[in-house]
Input
Amino acid sequence: MAEIKITLVRSPIGCNKNQKANLKALGLTKINKTVTKQNSAFIQGMVKKVEHLVKVEEI
Output
């Protein structure tokens, strides 16, 4: 499977608790923090919920 690099680019202040929980589950706690995850349907669904806060790149 391919990997994706997810970077938090906007603050989650003002977002609902479900979106904040998704960011925490992805491991994104601070702005400009980057994590690498396997590209799966589960991860894609989590990213879709917070796509306005993150930047996604394929590796």
